[in-house]
């Protein structure tokens, strides 16, 4: 069972937005055993919409289209699909009532633009959009399905989950797709590939291996398409188990596992607590931890000590040391980590101080220079890292290095 | 001049990664006046790569391909393009030397997988990749150009900027594309469309208007394709100027303008200072401000007071009030904002306290309940907001509402 995803909107082609809709749709289809053959993004252009949809319809059993269903003039998907399926338009009372009610709740008048949202091609099945004003549409021709969904991510997501996927599962007899991804750290791609070469060569032909390098990590994905899911999933687990014996110290976890999740798990399991003191990372480390449900069990507090005064007052850093060594120094990083650990009464304190740029660098301490420290119940560890040249990249890398150092400390490395 | 972008990788089709490469490539091409006709993502599949590249080559003068150039077995783009262009492979000494040097610097051995990266199709021009081990490639056939770049975003980006764009500008006589986007807030899409209907109807036919709704904002984009840039840019400015008279209070700014940038500008211009006290937003507000260069001029410090003890110790919140009203309450939010303002000696203090979930909600204070407060030199303002049900969404929305409230206070609203 093959699918094509089409996202419509000039904003995609000019690079104004990142297309996350197709990512979410691809995940839904994969999880149900439907293989996405191709993803295509095109503009709000009648000819191109018809050509692309016809080609998708010919090449795959399922086509999912998003975008171009808004009330304004630049949105032409609905009328173009009606034309392609040679269908009249009809006024849908249920949609009209829903739109009117939604707008009334938000104190918005029901005007003719909104009324036009209740017009739908007569030949389609309306997919009721409980969370928005543009209805989804389900078309069929010669046993092939074409679905059109609004481009607002939240509305699209609900329609995929509540309307499209249940209908696809009823409509088609689907086989299964299995993906499993192991996250490794500490070995660059080519060294990892050499290290696991024998393991890779011994994989059965129906298991496809992909290497996905990230900064600081390489992901290994095993995939099998349109198979009996349960036995293949077990086989994949066994293969990864074997890998664990080859690279035992390089495995972070599975799927979207991150270093902060590893630390989150250790702190939670051992009932340890954490406090952060951030200068150049500006709250990013605190935000990474507190984004995870359950962080309140171990995350006591964070201080973003941007000014020298706050480093002294909130963290107890010695102003004389700031003057002598500079705010970006091993001495200050250590005192920040120890200070926040003491103030918060936490088991572990961690700190960053560096130059995120674009200004503030010097020959001795260029932009990207970051001191990182972790204060533990036994000792304080500090490292110096060069984190790049771009402000965003520096913040990201310094945060990642700091969390990595904390993991090493927790593991007693 | 038309272009097609092709991104290759099974990870895109299964929804494992978000394709940001095509966004960046589209921006580069647009900026040079090249119209992106279509973006296509396909798997690491020989037949599909050839079919798609041939179709792109037939339909547009420029085709940019990324992905599938790594050293491991799953990467087949290079040999597939060599086949498509009927070319032998040759060993490129410069690439080989560069790869060996890069790896040596990182302490990585030069093995046969790395050596294979120096093999390139004899018919292509090598685009030297100073930042990575996979070279870019430039092919020509019948006046059409096909460029193949590595999928690592950082390397792709440098190659686009340093190699591809200069060559395209030399190779073709290009016209211009002009896009300008105004960010509005406070009017939902359909009301905005009604309000500016006469303005929209009076636009000249070569100016294309698009409505791009975001949570809390609607972006209005005017686009003109393959025109004389300067005069059209002036015309667009005039049109937006006219719009400013119709919706004077709803304009945030242009392009990617955000509420925090508006606040950043006000604080910087008026030499005012800011301190943040965050509970449920966990450092996100501090991270939003400190991500902007120059934030150190006004951002004094932030406190992420997750524990009740830290609310009392670092911010001076009365523990009796936490016990009486709960940590998520107007009283605590006010005291947090006032406390951090006082501790930091800042002109403005802002605070959030809420229930980010998934647990911790009650009938009276469900997940998503957030109290937001801003302490100013004159008064303290507090508002209650319901910020949704998903942890990430709650953190985002609460951060946005808080920064919006600060803007209103700074504007004296």
UniProtKB/TrEMBL annotation, chains A, B:
Pfam families: CinA (PF02464), CinA_KH (PF18146), MoCF_biosynth (PF00994)
Cross-referenced Gene3D superfamilies: CinA-like, MoaB/Mog-like domain
All residue ranges annotated as the MoaB/Mog domain in the record: 4-171
SMART domains the record matches: MoCF_biosynth (SM00852)
CDD domains: cinA
Family of this protein: Belongs to the CinA family.
Taxon lineage: Bacteria, Pseudomonadati, Bacteroidota, Bacteroidia, Bacteroidales
Protein name in UniProt: CinA-like protein
Organism (species): Alistipes shahii WAL 8301
Top-level taxon of the source organism: Bacteria
